[in-house]
């Protein structure tokens, strides 16, 4: 799930919002002690995240197209439950899928178990930290999609770039996506409804004041049962990276940006850019 849905159904502009947003706090208070707060990628959150995963979206298509330029194995970093891994495998590529979360990787393994044996055989699943991995091999393409770079702090990003450079084949490319706010005048907080693959309807709250260095995403079931049963609420606060500064950081780390491709309309709240980088000469 890119967690970057566009159409807002409820919005609020308030200088006085709490860190996670007024609307999310109000909804949490309404549910009271039924709430079970979890992260987006842990045992409770991972199945909900996976339920909302989208496969035929501009980012997946752009990554599939980008890797066509060079044959060979692919490294999918922060692969999660396989939003990119599975479509890449379906095109006949060999893919190493690396992620930190046991729960997200369990969902990927379940999907692989259901996939044709030939596809499964081309996938290597690795539990590891994208900022310090040692796979003992190189790749013509390394991918870090879903704007997951923002999950790392500055030291983590520096370590990630070192690990990436150590695994890039000669002339190889590191592809990553970055999220910015495209609607400078938009609301601080939005709520959208989204239906998961299993039919569950969710409400996705996002608190992201323009110019803020982080945003908070909170996911509720839209229609929790009318009883006292627990309600799982997933929340995560993620950094927002400044694109020009990030490009400087990449250059200083030995990665040259060779192309920038906007994957969404420029004035959309979730403006996603695909960066292609290569080892600096
Ligand atoms: C936004 S999700 C993207 C998952 C998948 N690429 C997708 O599009 O659905 C971010 C993923 O990064 C993983 N992650 C977070 N920190 C990580 C780290 N330090 N190393 C590897 N994976 C990490 C999480 O477990 C999660 O699966």
Quick rundown:
This protein is an alpha/beta fold and 281 residues long.
Task: Please outline the helices and strands.
Layout: E1 10-12, H1 22-31, E2 35-38, H2 45-51, H3 58-66, E3 74-77, H4 85-90, E4 95-99, H5 102-114, H6 117-121, E5 123-127, E6 139-144, H7 154-167, E7 168-181, E8 189-195, E9 201-207, E10 214-221, E11 231-239, H8 243-252, E12 255-262, E13 270-279
Parallel strand pairs: 2-11, 3-4, 3-6, 4-5, 6-7
Antiparallel strand pairs: 1-8, 7-13, 8-9, 9-10, 10-11, 12-13
Bound molecules: S-adenosylmethionine (SAM).
Task: Provide tags for this entry.
281 residues; alpha/beta; Carboxypeptidase Inhibitor, Chain A; Rossmann fold; seven-stranded mixed β-sheet; six-stranded mixed β-sheet; 8 helices; 13 strands; binds S-adenosylmethionine
Could you characterize the architecture of this molecule?
It is a single chain. With 281 residues, the chain is of the alpha/beta class. The protein folds into two domains: 10-45 and 184-239, 2-Layer Sandwich (Carboxypeptidase Inhibitor, Chain A); 58-181 and 241-279, Rossmann fold. It is 26% helix and 32% strand. The chain has eight helices and 13 strands. The radius of gyration is 19 Å and the shape is globular. Residues 4-17 have low confidence and may be disordered. Bound molecules: S-adenosylmethionine. S-adenosylmethionine (SAM) binds at residues 1, 41, 53, 78-80, 83-84, 99-101, 104, 129-131, 145-146, 148, 151. The site of S-adenosylmethionine has 19 residues, from loops.
What is the overall number of helices? 8
| Binned strand content | 25-35%
- Integer average pLDDT: 92
Q: Which word captures the global form?
A: globular
CATH architecture grouping of the largest domain = 3-Layer(aba) Sandwich
**Unreliable spans:** 4-17
User: What is the CATH topology descriptor of the largest domain?
Assistant: Rossmann fold
Largest sheet: 7 strands, mixed
């Amino acid at each position: 799930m890119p967690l970057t849905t566009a159409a807002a159904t409820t919005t609020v502009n308030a200088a006085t919002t709490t860190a996670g947003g007024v609307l999310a706090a109000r909804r949490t208070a309404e549910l009271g002690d039924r709430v079970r707060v979890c992260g987006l990628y842990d045992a409770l959150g991972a199945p909900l995240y996976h339920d909302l995963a989208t496969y035929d979206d501009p980012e997946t298509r752009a990554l599939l197209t980008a890797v066509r330029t060079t044959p060979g194995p692919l490294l999918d970093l922060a692969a999660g439950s396989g939003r990119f891994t599975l479509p890449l495998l379906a095109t006949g590529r060999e893919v190493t899928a690396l992620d930190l979360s046991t729960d997200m990787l369990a969902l990927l393994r379940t999907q692989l178990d259901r996939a044709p044996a030939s596809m499964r055989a081309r996938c290597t699943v690795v539990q590891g930290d994208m900022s310090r991995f040692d796979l003992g091999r190189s790749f013509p393409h390394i991918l870090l999609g879903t704007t997951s770079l923002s999950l790392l702090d500055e030291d983590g990003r520096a370590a990630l770039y070192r690990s990436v450079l150590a695994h890039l084949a000669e002339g190889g490319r590191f592809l990553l996506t970055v999220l910015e706010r495209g609607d400078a005048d938009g609301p601080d907080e939005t709520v959208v409804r989204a239906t998961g693959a299993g039919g569950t309807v969710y409400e996705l709250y996002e608190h992201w004041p323009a110019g803020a260095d982080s945003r908070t995403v909170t996911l509720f079931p839209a229609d929790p049962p009318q009883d006292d049963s627990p309600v799982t609420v997933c929340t995560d606060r993620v950094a927002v990276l400044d694109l020009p500064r990030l490009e400087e950081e990449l250059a200083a780390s030995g990665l040259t940006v060779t192309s920038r491709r906007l994957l969404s309309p420029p004035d959309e709240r979730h403006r996603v850019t695909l960066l292609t980088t290569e080892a600096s000469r």
